[in-house]
Every structure is written in structure tokens, then in C-alpha cells.
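As the next step, I selected for study a record pairing a protein sequence with its C-alpha cells, which the following lines show:
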Amino acid sequence: MGAERKNCLTAVKHLMKRLQNHLHQSRKLNVYEEFEVPEDVKEGHFAVVAKNEEEEKPTRFVVELRVLKHPAFLRLLKMAEDEYGFHHRGAVQVPCQPDELRRIIQERIC
């Protein structure tokens, strides 16, 4: 297994652990009792918002969970954590151009 693949797997495991901890804490606080998942977010998908600094309105995407294996997307999640923090409600917000996120989503991985 290549070093980049090992790094990718380690990053995915770390992210999943953080998400599990976040969900566990949220359940204890009943944060999501009134939160409904939008109808366009089907099982196996999640919402991501690309926030372009120059544009006022962010662009929303609904993506498959498999994008969590993409090294470029994992880097975006790390940047988002550094810039926005980890605790928020709703779609995951990433600091990138909508066209760049679209390119990452469209790349075939695994």
C-alpha cells in the first residue's frame, strides 16, 4: 500500500472518529431533535457548501459519501476545520471555489 493511500485512510479514520464523537455529543444534548434532513439529501449522501470569498451566495452540492475517500476533499475538510471549526449545523462548508469542488466531486475514485 502506497504512502499516499495510507495517509488517506488515516485521514478518513480520523474524520470518522471525529464525526462519531460529534454525533455522540449531539445526541446527549438532543441538538438534532428538531433538525430535519432536506429531501434532496438521500441515504449515502451529504450536503456541502462551497463558499467563494467574492460571491455573496454560497453554492450547495449534495455528494455521495465516497467523496470522503478523495485526498483533495480531505484536504478541504481540514482547511474547513481550521477556518470554521468543527461544530456547526447543516451542510459542511468548505473554503474553495464552487468550480474546484465540482471538479473534485466529478473525479472518479476507488
